[in-house]
Amino acid sequence: MKILITGANGTIGSDLVNFFSNCAQNNKVIAFYRTPNFVSKNLRNKNVRWVKQDLKKKILYKINPKILIHCAVSHEFSNKNKYSDLIDSNIIALKNVIEFAKDKKVEKLFNFSSMKMYGNICNKIHKDCNVFINPDYYGTTKIIAEKMLELQQLNYLNIRLPGVLCYNIDYPTRPWLNTIINKLKKNKVVNIFNSEKSFNNIIDTIEIFKFINFLMKKKTMKNGSLNFSASKPIKIKSMIYSIKQRLSSKSKIVLKKKKSKHFIISSYKAINDYGFNIASTSKIINRYIEG
Q1: Domains and CATH numbers, the chain
Q2: Burial state string for 27-58 with b = 16 or more CB within 10 A and e = fewer than 16
Q3: Pair 83, 137: CB distance under 8 Å
Q4: What is the pLDDT of residues 176-225, one digit of tens each?
Q5: Nearest Cα to 287, choosing from 213, 207, 228?
Q6: What's the rounded Cα separation, in Å, for the pair 105 and 82?
């Protein structure tokens, strides 16, 4: 199957290029990137074709992918994260991707969105249907992007992601859990808030790959938008001590009494409307540590 992945040498995109190009002999991955890095230079096999493409410009590349996975994004951690950069990368780029997908009659388009679009989350259990409350610029561009897709005659799915654990490109300070893991690896003091609260605000690229691969194989896919986060929340204190034990860390764990804002994520639609069993929080974390 021919699969186009944008933002292919980024954190999420690079893992998906690797997974999809190696999971089946007949998969052919076209990997769009804007700026070269070690991924676009080194992640190479017979099933991957790297293409330099600025998505702010019309896509003229002559290919006919069946599946399009749109990973390209600008966010608060990007080198270019001014308001104009967010507009260019998150709205103008998607406009060009949509036009290309319509012209090439792409069968399924997967667009990565973000939990940041919800803004100020006030619910203890955050659901797919919750309203958006004062999102920042980044979150606002993601709302607009989702609405753009809703207006198109395309088979699409907006996947709203929490913090994502990645394997090819690993940032020690994000998401939050990676900060904790790296402190434990270095035997540093770890301060924990809301230690008795439950946590599932995480996913990894393996689970994202499995979900998309699952939907790719279905004849039909319901259009829509959904949260995609780990299942089976676990207590933060138990999670941190379990990670510490697995890493044989000598870190001191300090349980802070001060509480901060906290919520868990419901992925009801992914599980019930799309029929996908998302891996548990413990399984995803253990897999990441072992990987």
Answers
A1: 2-162+203-227 (3.40.50.720), 165-201+231-290 (3.90.25.10)
A2: bbbbbbbbeeeebbeebeeebbbbeebebeee
A3: yes
A4: 999 999 999 999 999 999 999 999 999 999 999 999 999 999 989 999 99
A5: 207
A6: 33
